[in-house]
């Protein structure tokens, strides 16, 4: 198992309701999640806004520290690991962000952006690794000298992917990475991701609000609602025979590009 | 009966001459919903902005006609044009949070148009706003009128903007990606609401969206845009069953559908992009003096 997550809880102080003196009340964001991510799996995490999808992803990468439960990554308990101990592990877990414009430094060239994590991890032969990463995401090598604003949305997202895979991680978290893209670029990015998962043997957690995208890409799916898992299972089964009422609501609400769909 | 909104050969350019809209023509009849679809940068929103006279300063209409209720807006003096647009057309914007003023209560934001522009009395306007909030299914409308935007959910805010858009009984509403910022379950409620309100009030609706799924649920007719040029005009059902232009077919093929997980993820092929680019260039050559 790549990830074993048991009774994961996370709460944050609600500063809008903090009394003048004393502690702020806490908001429960994740309310006891238990699931596993097997090696090589593509796990879809779906839910409405505010359901805790992104918080779950950030807890899995230990960008946030859980307040309860445990997270085991490759057999090691990382629930409360200190930042210094986490750093070497970060080479194994990378993230692709939603908005490539704000997650790529506008003042650095693409080559420098992709090289960033390689420097942090103290790699050698960085130049060659950057070019290799560009090859793998299907961008011309000359793009290393361009700035993010010179690229289209789909190309920028490829740079985000290149940065994540340059370290050859075992696990990648992709948080709503196609929601800002046009359908054509979306199709390209999803196809690319599918290829990389196959070629590099990646394990992928794919956060999305779009059930159609999840259906296409993920072999397991987890449905979140208000910080709880309402349903999880193999994607095909979950779509064919949704058990939770919320999953059915989500599926029923999707407008399919089909004038004959019953959408009542 | 002629269409309520008729756009003829509308050309909009960036100052310096770069074309943004290329001889766009379309009709929207009263009680009909016309979709504008295309990828980002295709000029969908610019058509709506040109009609409402809210184009960014850097853009200008260089030729064409926009007939609203039998009057060519572009032939009117600026002040008269804005008065006419204000009295007959309204916008449902994309992002309900930025469209509402965060430091004013919701009520005055709905009634302002009626009081300031149409000269209603404050009490008439408030009665009308309460009635509209009920019509868009907002519970406890009197309380909501006194609320600030941040106290309400995204779906509620969008309902308020729909109520505001319908407040002066406009003949034309332009909805610019009205559900893009919402969850699918909320999107469904809001789309239904817009469709119900539109049908009940007999409004002509110009619906800008990038989501072909949404188009198939709300539109009667549509135009597909690429680089500011109308690539295909179609009745909705015909578009989904027999799209004519290769670019339309490619857009449909790139749209994922959970009912067809194996198919439906083909990016627009390079050959199709080259073909539409050629059509756009041909158009520009013909348009050049």
Automatic annotation (TrEMBL), chain A:
Gene Ontology terms: biological process: transmembrane transport
UniProt xrefs under CDD domains: ABC_NikE_OppD_transporters
SMART domains hit by this protein: AAA
Gene Ontology MF, one: ATP binding
UniProt superkingdom: Bacteria
Keyword GTP-binding applies: no
InterPro entries: AAA+_ATPase, ABC_transp_ATP-bind, ABC_transporter-like_ATP-bd, ABC_transporter-like_CS, P-loop_NTPase
Keywords from the named record: ATP-binding, Nucleotide-binding, Transport
Domain ABC transporter, first and last residues per copy: 10-251
Family matches, as Gene3D superfamilies: P-loop containing nucleotide triphosphate hydrolases (3.40.50.300)
Name of protein: Peptide/nickel transport system ATP-binding protein
Organism in which the protein naturally occurs: Sulfitobacter delicatus
Origin organism lineage: Bacteria, Pseudomonadati, Pseudomonadota, Alphaproteobacteria, Rhodobacterales
TrEMBL record, chain B:
UniProt xrefs under InterPro entries: AAA+_ATPase, ABC_Ni/Peptide_Import, ABC_transporter-like_ATP-bd, ABC_transporter-like_CS, P-loop_NTPase
Segments for region (Disordered): 261-289
Biased composition (Basic and acidic residues): 275-289
Residues covered by the ABC transporter domain: 5-252
Chief localization: membrane
Gene Ontology annotations for the cellular component aspect, listed alphabetically: plasma membrane
PROSITE patterns: ABC_TRANSPORTER_1 (PS00211), ABC_TRANSPORTER_2 (PS50893)
Pfam families in the record: ABC_tran
Record's keyword annotation contains Ion transport: no
UniProt xrefs under SMART domains: AAA (SM00382)
CDD domains reported for this sequence: ABC_NikE_OppD_transporters
Record keyword Cell inner membrane present: yes
Location of the protein in the cell: Cell inner membrane
Record-linked Gene3D superfamilies: P-loop containing nucleotide triphosphate hydrolases
Molecular function GO terms recorded: ATP binding; ATP hydrolysis activity
Record's keyword terms, sorted: ATP-binding, Cell inner membrane, Cell membrane, Membrane, Nucleotide-binding, Translocase, Transport
Membrane topology of the entry: Peripheral membrane protein
Family, per entry: Belongs to the ABC transporter superfamily.
Protein name: Peptide/nickel transport system ATP-binding protein
């Amino acid at each position: 198992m790549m990830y074993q997550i048991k009774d994961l809880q996370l709460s944050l102080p609600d500063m809008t309701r903090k009394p003048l003196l004393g502690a702020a009340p806490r908001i429960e964001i994740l309310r006891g999640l238990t699931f596993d991510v097997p090696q090589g799996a593509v796990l879809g995490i779906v839910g409405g806004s505010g359901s805790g999808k992104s918080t779950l992803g950030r807890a899995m990468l230990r960008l946030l520290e859980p307040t309860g439960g445990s997270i085991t990554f490759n057999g090691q308990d990382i629930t409360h690991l200190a930042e210094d101990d986490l750093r070497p592990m970060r080479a194994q877990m990378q993230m692709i962000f939603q908005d490539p414009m704000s997650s790529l430094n506008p003042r650095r060239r693409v080559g420098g952006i992709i090289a960033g994590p390689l420097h942090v991890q103290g790699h050698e032969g960085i130049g060659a690794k950057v070019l290799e990463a560009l090859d793998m995401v299907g961008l011309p090598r000359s793009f290393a000298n361009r700035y993010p604003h010179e690229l289209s949305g789909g190309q920028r997202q490829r740079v985000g992917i290149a940065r994540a895979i340059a370290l050859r991680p075992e696990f990648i978290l992709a948080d709503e990475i196609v929601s800002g893209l046009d359908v054509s670029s979306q199709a390209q990015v999803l196809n690319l991701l599918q290829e990389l998962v196959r070629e590099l043997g990646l394990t992928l957690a794919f956060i999305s609000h779009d059930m159609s995208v999840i259906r296409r890409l993920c072999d397991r799916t987890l449905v979140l609602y208000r910080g709880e898992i309402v349903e999880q299972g193999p994607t095909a089964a979950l779509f064919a025979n949704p058990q939770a009422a919320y999953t059915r609501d989500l599926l029923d609400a999707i407008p399919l590009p089909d004038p004959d769909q019953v959408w009542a | 009966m002629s269409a309520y909104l008729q756009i003829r050969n509308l050309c909009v350019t960036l100052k310096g001459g770069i074309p943004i809209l290329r001889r766009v023509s379309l009709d929207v009849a009263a009680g009909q919903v016309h979709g504008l679809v295309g990828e980002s940068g295709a000029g969908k929103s610019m058509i709506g902005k040109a009609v409402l006279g809210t184009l960014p300063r850097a853009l200008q209409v260089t030729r064409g006609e926009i007939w609203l209720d039998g009057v060519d807006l572009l032939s009117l003096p600026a002040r008269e044009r804005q008065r006419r647009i204000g009295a007959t057309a309204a916008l449902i914007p994309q992002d309900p949070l930025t469209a509402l003023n965060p430091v004013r209560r919701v009520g005055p934001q709905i009634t302002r148009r009626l009081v300031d522009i149409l000269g209603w009395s404050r009490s008439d306007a408030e009665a009308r706003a309460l009635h509209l909030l009920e019509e868009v299914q907002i519970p406890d409308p009197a309380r909501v009128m006194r609320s600030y935007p941040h106290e309400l959910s995204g779906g509620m805010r969008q309902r308020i903007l729909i109520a505001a858009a319908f407040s002066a009984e406009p003949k034309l509403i332009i909805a610019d990606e009205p559900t893009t910022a919402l969850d699918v379950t909320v999107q469904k409620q809001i789309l239904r609401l817009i469709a119900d309100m539109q049908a009940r009030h007999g409004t002509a609706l110009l619906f800008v969206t990038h989501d072909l799924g949404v188009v198939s649920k709300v539109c009667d007719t549509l135009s597909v845009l690429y680089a500011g040029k109308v690539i295909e005009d179609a009745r909705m059902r015909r578009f989904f069953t027999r799209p004519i232009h290769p670019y339309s077919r490619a857009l449909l093929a790139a749209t994922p559908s959970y009912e067809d997980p194996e198919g439906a993820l083909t990016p627009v092929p390079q050959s199709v992009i080259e073909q539409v680019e050629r059509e756009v260039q041909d158009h520009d050559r013909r348009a050049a003096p």
